[in-house]
Design goal:
The chain is built from seven helices and no strands. It has 123 residues and is an all-alpha fold. α2 packs across α3.
């Protein structure tokens, strides 16, 4: 398992940033940033959040969030979306059926009403 310092270094390399670039973005010296990558600095949560922000990643990934847990979370989110989609599909189907029923009722009412010209009997 990689240390946070190793992950930070790998993220920097993935992004194609130099240590100087990242140090500038964080507002710290290049030496201070180098110490972070070498694991010589105890990082605060706010510093970790800033680093995650620079690399456009999550704090969880930076801190070593387990990929299996991430996968499970994503699977649960997918299942939740699928259930919401099915719920919307069923609601849509119900509304269509109600509308169709309403149209049938309106058509039947029209047929059973006596036309206006037949209602007037002029004597």
């Amino acid at each position: 398992m990689k240390t946070i310092a190793e992950k930070i270094r790998l993220l920097r390399l993935e992004k194609g940033f130099s240590q100087e670039n990242v140090a500038d973005m964080l507002g710290i010296s290049t030496t201070a940033y180098g110490d972070i990558e070498r694991g010589k600095t105890d990082l605060t949560l706010s510093r970790l959040q800033s680093i995650a922000q620079v690399f456009s990643t999550s704090l969880g990934r930076l801190m070593g969030e387990d990929d299996a847990i991430t996968s499970q979370i994503q699977q649960l989110e997918l299942e939740k979306l699928q259930m919401e989609n099915e719920k919307l599909r069923l609601e849509n189907q119900l509304l269509k059926e109600k509308l169709a029923g309403r149209i049938v009722i309106d058509l039947l009412r029209e047929r059973t009403q006596v036309p206006a010209e037949r209602q007037r009997i002029g004597f």
